[in-house]
Structures are given as structure tokens and as C-alpha cells.
Design brief:
This is DUF3243 domain-containing protein. With 83 residues, the chain is an all-alpha fold. It has four helices and no strands. The chain has one domain: Orthogonal Bundle (Cytochrome Bc1 Complex, Chain D, domain 2), CATH 1.10.760.
């Protein structure tokens, strides 16, 4: 089973990676930039597997680049607050 198959596992996975990035000294600006790149890759290359991922993919698809950066930043905040 992939972490992409379950929304809670995906958030936990992202939270773990975020914690590792922070421990390595990456600041929030760099982390948000990486989150944008990951979100863009997932939106273009990976089929959403959960209802939550489908909503994110739909939002990403219609968002401007600035809005996509905002979505990525919100995802970072989401996993920071739940991890």
C-alpha cells in the first residue's frame, strides 16, 4: 500500500518529511517552495487516489500559480498542526 492510498497516512508522511526538513535547518520559505514543486509534480503526474487528493487536484488545476503556492503553504501548515 502506498502512502498516497490513505489521506491520513499521506499527511503523516508529509509531517515526518517536514519535521526532517526543519531539523536539517530548512526555513519555512524553502519548505513552502518544495511543497509547491511536489504539489505541481503530483498534480501533473500522479492520479489522485482518495477523495481529499481529488479535491486538491481539482483546486490545483484551476488555481493560478500564486494560488498554487498558497495551497502548498496551507498543506505545510496542515501537517505542521497535525504532526
Amino acid at each position: 500500500m502506498s502512502v498516497l492510498d490513505n489521506w491520513h497516512q499521506w499527511k503523516d508522511f508529509l509531517g515526518d518529511r517536514l519535521q526532517q526538513a526543519q531539523q536539517q535547518g530548512l526555513n519555512n520559505e524553502v519548505i513552502s517552495s518544495l511543497a509547491y514543486e511536489i504539489g505541481d509534480y503530483l498534480a501533473k503526474q500522479v492520479e489522485p487516489r482518495t477523495p481529499e487528493e481529488k479535491v486538491l487536484a481539482d483546486l490545483w488545476r484551476v488555481a493560478s500559480e500564486d494560488e498554487q503556492h498558497a495551497i502548498a503553504s496551507v498543506m505545510v501548515k496542515l501537517v505542521q498542526n497535525t504532526h
